[in-house]
Design a protein that fits this description.
Oligomer: single chain
Strand content: 5-15%
Number of helices: 11
Distance between the termini: 7 Å
Structural class: alpha/beta
Radius of gyration: 22 Å
Shape: elongated
Largest sheet: 6 strands, parallel
Number of strands: 8
Length: 279
């Protein structure tokens, strides 16, 4: 699990919030299978409000299909809103509202903050995890464990959503060909499309390729039909590049490749994007 803990300058000036982020960073850096990094994260946790740069990062995360958690750090309470109808104020409110609405979950410190956020009618899902730096309601260990559970649940739900979209797409393609069989080529197409999504995310967990390799080596499917299907889906080149990357990393051999592999810059990039941390 790669986590990007992103804080605004205003949050970094608040000892209580900064201390919360620091304890999370120490917790996840010591947790097997977790990495705190800005590079190709599985999830982003934004801390703070009213920051245009952060809002732009949130938009890019949505475009790349990376889920994010948003902690306003009490920045969306009524007294933090600027009153007026200037263009700048309206734009700030608009981008902040969009960021809140597109968050996988909004994290708040207590019931009052949660109540005030719901009054804005911007959010549909929120969770209370108090700040252990200033609250006796929770210990630092409990807060970190609760945040870990939130991250893992968010990533799992997000990935299931992506995989369901792919399944529906493949089912539609299958119905268009009037092929109602349970041929493994359709399952293989699903798996290749999922890897392509991960490639676009620029984060390909090694265990995903290991699972794909096992499927390709243990499934009995028509390679000619698979090659034709890849051609119709315009996936021939990407699959060939992926095959080369898998031959280098998970020992996929030529005899189990439906089409000849291709070694080029994209194949090398796929290898570089493989994350080898434990599940």
């Amino acid at each position: 699990m790669r986590i990007n803990l992103y804080t605004t300058p205003s949050v970094r000036k608040q000892p209580a919030c900064c201390g919360y982020v620091t304890l999370l960073q120490h917790y996840f850096e010591g947790l097997p299978g977790s990495i705190v990094s800005q590079e190709n994260p599985d999830i982003i946790h934004f801390w703070g409000c009213w920051n245009w740069q952060m809002a732009q990062m949130a938009q890019k995360a949505v475009a790349r299909r990376i889920p994010y958690i948003f902690t306003p750090a009490e920045g969306l309470q009524p007294w933090n809103f600027r009153h007026g109808n200037s263009e700048k104020q309206l734009q700030a409110t608009a981008y902040q509202r969009q960021m809140v609405r597109e968050a996988a979950c909004v994290h708040v410190f207590g019931p009052l903050e949660q109540e005030q956020l719901y009054a804005l009618r911007w959010i549909t899902r929120s969770i209370i995890i108090p700040n252990p730096v200033i609250s006796n309601a929770i210990t630092p260990q409990q807060a970190a464990e609760a945040m870990e559970a939130l991250y893992r649940q968010t990533i799992e739900q997000h990935n299931k959503g992506i995989q369901e979209e792919i399944r529906q797409y493949v089912a539609h393609c299958q119905s268009q060909t009037h092929d109602i069989s349970s041929s493994p080529i359709w399952q293989l197409l699903e798996k290749i499309l999922y890897v392509k999504y991960l490639y676009q995310r620029q984060n390909i967990p090694l265990h995903v390729l290991q699972e794909l390799c096992r499927f390709m080596t243990h499934s009995d499917y028509d390679e000619s039909a698979m090659a034709d299907l890849l051609k119709r889906q315009q996936l021939t080149l990407f699959t060939a590049q992926l095959e080369h990357a898998m031959s280098e990393t998970v020992q996929l051999t030529e005899g189990f490749m439906p089409i000849p592999s291709v070694h080029d810059k994209t194949a090398s990039k796929i290898i570089k994007l493989i994350t080898r941390y434990p599940q």
